[in-house]
Write a structure and sequence with these properties.
This protein has 130 residues and is mainly alpha-helical. Helix content is 62%, strand content 0%. The protein has 9 helices and no strands. The mean pLDDT is 84.
Length: 130
């Protein structure tokens, strides 16, 4: 149920998720219906595509949000943590819209600054990579 719900929330077809996970759409359907159990490597790939954890997909946690490493999490400011929390609650299409807007803001910011060799905008992945 979790797999199907997350896939639908991310607006992915069975075919799209199956391809990304390296399985057939028929096999993914069996995973979603509970008639087959995916191998660990397939669960990991599906978790990556669905922006969740393998633990959530297999029912070991009720929190679908992916986790950051403890060291990296300690480095985040409170403002960054709040932003990540908001982002984690957005569906895929709104995440893309947010990334597009963020890229526009970075481009505007770069236009107003003197040129540097490496720009902040060049370090941020494009919206279609979200």
């Amino acid at each position: 149920k979790r797999l199907c719900a997350l896939r639908q929330d991310k607006e992915l077809t069975q075919k799209t998720l199956a391809k990304a996970a390296g399985v057939t759409a028929a096999m993914l359907s069996k995973y979603e219906n509970g008639t087959n159990v995916p191998k660990a490597d397939v669960v990991a790939r599906m978790a990556d595509v669905l922006d969740t954890t393998a633990d959530y997909l297999v029912g070991r946690t009720n929190d679908p949000a992916p986790t950051l490493s403890h060291d990296r999490l300690k480095e985040l400011t409170e403002e960054e943590k709040k932003l990540l929390l908001v982002y984690s609650h957005l569906n895929r299409s709104n995440r893309i819209r947010l990334m597009e807007r963020a890229h526009m803001l970075l481009e505007d910011q770069e236009r107003l600054r003197p040129r540097r060799h490496v720009t902040a905008a060049s370090k941020v992945p494009p919206p279609d990579k979200v």
